[in-house]
Write a structure and sequence with these properties.
Order of helices and strands: EEEEEEEEEEE
Helix content: under 10%
Distance between the termini: 40 Å
Number of helices: 0
């Protein structure tokens, strides 16, 4: 079965950086569209970034554009989210989503990112 496992969340000071990782197994990773989403306390889950399964075309939420970078390693079956210039509004649980060629979606359990001084 498909597994999606995030890691890399931590407590970081404003202006700092973090890199999140999302390891997948059980699906044809190269064909999966991968994305990151986040959910802050009391708010709905929101889209952060996406990378497609072809040429690695990326899409970002306006709130993170220019600060976050999504990338994928098709050998390691892993997608990354490099987060720079973090601010307290970026505090949330970050989730990874895999969307497969069978039109199925799989979510990880999430990793906590806290931006605070």
């Amino acid at each position: 079965h498909v597994q999606v496992v995030e890691s890399g969340g931590d407590l970081v000071q404003p202006g700092g950086s973090l890199r999140l990782s999302c390891a997948t197994s059980g699906c044809t990773f190269t064909r999966a569209v991968m994305s990151w989403h986040r959910q802050a306390p009391g708010l709905e889950r929101e889209f952060v970034a996406l990378i497609n399964n072809g040429f690695g075309i990326t899409t970002y939420a306006e709130s993170v554009k220019g600060r976050f970078t999504i990338s994928r390693d098709n050998v390691k079956n892993t997608v990354y989210l490099q987060m720079n210039s973090l601010n307290p509004e970026d505090t949330a649980v970050y989730f990874c989503r895999a969307y497969t060629t069978r039109s199925e979606e799989y979510w990880g359990q999430g990793t906590q990112v806290t931006v605070s001084s």
